[in-house]
Amino acid sequence: MKDEQIKKQFEAAVERYAEMGVDVKKALEQMQKISLSLHCWQTDDVTGFENPDGQLSGGIQATGNYPGKARNIQEVRQDVEKAVSLIPGSHRLSLHAIYGDFKSNVDRDQIGIKDFQSWIDWAKANNMKLDFNSTSFSHPKSGDQSLSNRDKGIRDFWIEHTIRSRAIADEMGKQLGGKACHNLWVHDGMKDLTVDRYLYRKNLEDSLDKIFAKKFANVKDAVECKLFGVGLESYTVGSHEFYMGYAVKHGIMATMDMGHFHPTEETYDKISALLLFTPEIMLHVSRPVRWDSDHVVILNDSVQMLAQEIVWANALDRVNIGLDYFDASINRIGAYVIGSRATQKAFLMALLSPIAKLREYEANGQYFERLALLEENKAMPWSAVWDYFCLQNNTVPGEQFIAEIQKYEKAVTSKR
Ligand code: RNT
Ligand code: ZN
Q1: Tens digits of per-residue pLDDT, 156-165?
Q2: pLDDT value of residue 52
Q3: What does pTM read for this prediction?
Q4: Domain for residue 24, yes or no?
Q5: Is residue 375 part of a domain?
Q6: Distance (Å) from CA 316 to ligand 1 centroid
């Protein structure tokens, strides 16, 4: 695709959208401001740098063994830089606590800014901002419960870890400007019938109270619920109701991971409900296939409706868009880029939707017209606008990123 052709198709699209009452230039301006929080863990199947041979625990699984996985901090950074070069716009990187630049064995209750300063310097050099996640899984003390454990010693260990994680996020926000999101997800649960459900939830609440008692000026706190984990099928301490209650009571964010609800339950409808009661929302854009499988995000109905809901609720500045999936069965950077671009496309399509007309139809009770326009909107030339957006951001349009990733695979990842 030549630049000239992209521009010509863009001009035609601008005209067609104008007929629908949509201002493409304005949509592009808004699009430019949407940054994704890219999940570093797609590069290495959620391994991190504590123990490269360690097993991923906590009821999550990355399946597949496609060659070329990043094995150390240099390779993770190199792969993220490659992915970012193929994702238009400016973005954030979301790190887990196991991705520190550890110079020695640092246990989780000992991590500090020293282990992440080189990431902050890297982010600055790459014009990115950072977000952070405490890591309760893949550790000898992870077990089936961390912050909700019956054992006070175990709880205290994870409380200390999580406070330190928030302190690191605070420093990231301070040094890079703006606030950093800190996301807290713990796997805590039980495989089989659980009788003391109240006890574990009370323990979790107490632990959270201790964790959040410390206030950090540069952190936006989020808590992530879940339906179930592998091996922890019967009971999840941090359920949706639990964290929604906690987030509302304490004025922090709830994280909505698209894979963490019943298979027919959609995330998009939760946005407007939550926004009335919490300051902001954190998203984990993902793709569950039959379970919380964390497949690569694609431009499916769920992602499109989620983006529409956010745009139509005029809530772009109250929603933090994080990605969360890990596919180890295909080229990992390819997976990273497909999902990121799919998420962006969904937001662009939402920004280009004829919402004024749709609202008018709805207000008038013209429901046939509303449905008809929603259907017709699907075939509008949004892809011409997408390609132009890529061009504006010096990123390859259309399918050209496939060849770029193949080149990178040949030169870099296949040699690992
Ligand atoms: C697990 C949660 C959590 C993790 C990451 C690695 O089900 O979705 O967000 O995927 O923190
Ligand atoms: Zn998640």
Answers
A1: 999 999 999 9
A2: 83
A3: 0.97
A4: no
A5: no
A6: 23
The count of domains in the chain is 1
Tens-place pLDDT, residues 257-314: 999 999 999 999 999 999 999 999 999 999 999 999 999 999 999 999 999 999 999 9
Question: How far is Cα 142 from Cα 186, in angstroms, rounded to an integer?
Answer: 9
Percentages of the chain per state (helix, strand, coil), in multiples of 5: 50, 15, 40
Q: Is residue 102, in this structure, part of any structural domain at all?
A: yes
Tokens standing for 26? 């304005």
Catalytically active residues, by annotation: 185, 224, 226, 257, 260, 284, 292, 294, 324
Which residue among 185, 233, 326 is best mutated to probe the pocket of ligand 1, counting the most ligand atoms within 8 A of its Cβ? Answer: 185
Cα(82)–Cα(334) distance, integer angstroms? 10
Sequence-distant contacts of 49-53: CB under 8 A, at least 24 apart:
49/73, 49/98, 49/99, 49/100, 49/101, 49/102, 50/98, 50/102, 50/138, 50/139, 51/138
367 domain residue, yes or no: no
Range of the domain at 113: 34-353
